[in-house]
Amino acid sequence: MKIIKSAAVILILVLLCIPAFGQDMRARSVEAQRQKAMLEQRALEEKQAAQKEAREALAKIVSDRQAAKAAVADLNQKNSETKENIADLQKRISELEAQKAALKQELSNMDAQTRTLVGHVRSNARDALALVKQSQQSALIPGRADALKELAGQSRFPSIEQIDAMAEILLDEIARSGEVRIEKASIVDRLGREAVADVLTLGEFTAAYSMGDETGFLLYSDTSQRFFALSKLPSSKYRKALRAYMNGESPVALMDLTKGAALRQLTQEKGLAERLPQGGPIIWVILALGGFAMLLVLERVVFLLRIRVNASKLMAQIQPLAQNGDWKECLDLLKAQKSKPLARVLAWGIKHRHLERMDMENALQEAILGEIPALERFLSIIAMMAAVAPLLGLLGTVTGMINTFHVITYYGAGDPKMMSGGISEALLTTMLGLAAAIPIMLAHTLLSRRIEGSIAQMEEKAVSLANTIYAVREKE
């Protein structure tokens, strides 16, 4: 627009400076002005159009900008809302994942607990089945282990009824194991026949039966779950005690705390009368030796009891008489007990009271030495028997072992029972020899101590008498 104005001004100046131009120039000037006006008008219109377009563009831009801002704000809000929704959804997903994991873990734990519970139930059922089979009460209640067999063997989850049945069986077992019962029951007697008898059960430890005049112990077999009578009846003492208890006549019951082991041993037990012939001829020699030694010991005991005297009391009676010089009274007092070695020694000393001290002490020692053989009579024989008895037992054992090895040579060593039986019989003589030697040695020791005490007592009282006699001499 400035260029157009400048061109118009120049044109006017040219027209003014050249007035000589003619009418054409005026026409041209008029035309130029008209064109200028037209150009200015056009320029003005174009300017207005351009300004209008600019305003419209600006308005549109402003409108678009505001719309864009609104759209951006809206999008930002939606974006924020979307982010919040995403965060909420992610949080919800995390919560659901955690719940899923927790539920999965809970399901796994419940499954494991269920399997553990089933395993415990089956294990307890197997334990209960083993317990019931080993319980002697099962012989009185046939078929009570059937429910436990089914429960222990099935693969599905046990029912409450089955668990209740197992609990009832266990409670019944507990109750019965602490009770004493007498009831009719079927047993297998000593001849292998089935019979009905009065069966006494003392908890889980011992069972006995009474059938007519026969009374004995029962053994329980967990394989067949039945009672079997011992093949050998107990001694009459045991049978009498069992019968009295079963009849209510005695409060004392015989009980095997080993649950049958001692009763089985009872059937294998042999008395001394049954064992003696198995030891061979040397057994009788040992018995004769032991019997003879016991007779000698008994004779020595009787002898020592017969010559026993209260030495202190005797000296208390003699010393006042000796101090008074009443020797006759002393001798009479000692003669009244002449069966006692001490009295004879003291009497011998009083008879030799007139000798010198050395001679009188020698006389007393001679009297004591004279009494010793009677006191020590048979002691050496008893000691010899105590030494010989175990040697005889050893001789019998060696002889029995030789016989056992001869049997092994002929028949082989394939049967341990045969070997153990032969060795047991061979050792019987050693046992009996030691059984004879030990009391003999003890008796010999006690007798020797007693005799040594008697000799020491005689020596002491002899010295006391010599001192009393010489005290009286010095006074005279």
UniProtKB/TrEMBL annotation:
Residues 339-459 form the MotA/TolQ/ExbB proton channel domain. Keywords: Cell membrane, Coiled coil, Membrane, Protein transport, Transmembrane, Transmembrane helix, Transport. One of its GO terms (cellular component) is plasma membrane. Pfam families: MotA_ExbB. It is a multi-pass membrane protein. It is found in: Cell membrane; Membrane. Gene3D superfamilies: 1.20.5.340. The keyword Phosphoprotein does not apply. Belongs to the exbB/tolQ family. This is MotA/TolQ/ExbB proton channel. It comes from Desulfatibacillum aliphaticivorans.
